[in-house]
Amino acid sequence: MTVGLERSSCGLSVIAVYLSIVFLFSLAEARTPAISNNVSSYFAIDLEDGTMTTPQLIKKYGYQVENHEATSADGYIISLTRIPPSKPKHRHPYPILLVHGLLGSSGDYLVIGPNNSIAYLLADRGYDVWLADMRGNRYSQKHVRLTTGSPDYWDFSWHEMGYYDLPAIIEYILRQTAAQKLIYIGHSQGTTVFFVMASARPEYNDKIARMYALSPAVCLKRLRSPVTRWLIEHANRLKELFDMFGVQQFLPHSALTYQLSSIICPMSDENNICMQIVSQMVGPNPKMVDMMAMHIITGHDPAGASVKQMLHFAQIQRSGQFRQYDYGRRNNTVRYSHWKPPAYNLSAITAPITIFYALNDWLVDPRDVLRFARLLPNKPLINLVEDENFNHLDFVTAKNARSLVYEPILSDLQELDEAAFRESA
Questions:
Q1: CB of 184 within 8 A of CB of 352?
Q2: Cβ distance 17 to 237 under 8 Å?
Q3: What is the rounded CA–CA span in Å between residue 327 and residue 334?
């Protein structure tokens, strides 16, 4: 009886933690609901954008769109959405690949609409734009033999995304475009997976003309977000609960979140509970928030992830080291021939890199960004966003994202184009 009571107490405690996490994420992801269609926006967007898929959004705003798939060496089928170049006679030398962050999707690069989102800005200038959706999110849940109902399907972290998915994506794009190299733009986890690939599969450095890292999530020791710190503190108990109930998927895409947002947090209230929580996650920057854009993104995110993916981030925060997944001493010894998981060899990264980071980023601390930059063998170009309140989410949703981040990228891309044309002349 005593043992049974102890297990019951433990189970209830873990369930309480899980329910608290789900509630917090529901609020945080339900940032800004739409109560009225009369709400205006700084951007050229409207409320139906939150109900549309990535291809539907692209079509809605007058761009051509193509659907593609790349298959990784371990059998995952990755969805790619292409905005083909509008002026093929004036081709740029490099196609451009954009990769989203944790729990995000390709829609992240579209939510603030034409003339503002980076994907549209690139397409307007005639670039060949490719949007990836990494394994396990709402658009990429196919496998050559496994179904999402199989626990084996979800046995991956961002390590596999970098080691298997990105090489498959890059090879596919280069074959389709007949290009020798591509431009890579990643935000948050979109940078994590790149640095896994560039360190563990160093031959792919030669296929990158330039990599733009928006808030690189590699060194994560100094988290300022109290919500995220709390989640990491309870990571082991969360894993215990997931194992108990056989849960491998974390926060899959659901229309419920979108509906919940319209009930809990009125869009007219810029200080509603959802906005307060998201500010505690990514850092507050109320002047650059567009309430409609924040609501729209809840129709796209969370887009789903594996539980293992989340735990891997918790591990690197706790250890302070950018290394492979920790399975525990015994299993590490079997898998890695050492009781510790191996660290990624950052000295193998040779691709040219440009980093953008922000002072008010509560998930990727500026000190950790600078520490990471010092670990790279080739000194990266480092850009501090010129807004002291710019936060982690602002890289894809802020009113000043275009002027402070995207315009410098576009200017640099033009210089790369000119240099490439000079070399080929």
A1: no
A2: yes
A3: 10
Which residue in 105, 140, 188, 261 is the catalytic one? Answer: 188
- Residues in the chain, pLDDT under 50: 1-24, 26-37
In a 10 Å sphere around its CB, with 0-12 CB exposed, 13-18 middle and 19+ buried, how is residue 31 labelled?
A: buried
392 belongs to the catalytic site: yes
Residue in 143, 187, 253, 392 annotated catalytic: 392
Question: At 368, which amino acid appears?
Answer: D
- HEC string of 318-341 equals HHCCCECCCCCHHHHHHHHCCCCC
Tokens of 77: 């089928």
Residue 20 is predicted with a pLDDT of 44
Is there a catalytic annotation at residue 40? no
Q: What is the DSSP string of 366-404?
A: HHHHHHHHHHSSSPPEEEE-S-TT--STHHHH-TTHIII
| pLDDT tens per residue, range 249-266 | 999 998 777 777 777 877
Predicted confidence (pLDDT) per residue in 159-216, tens digit: 999 999 999 999 999 999 999 999 999 999 999 999 999 999 999 999 999 999 999 9
Cα of 358 vs its chain's centroid, Å? 16
CA distance 362 to 184: 24
Closest CA to 249 of 336, 168, 132, 148: 148
- Nearest alpha carbon to residue 148 among 63, 253, 233: 253
Nearest Cα to Cα of residue 132 among 61, 68, 79: 79
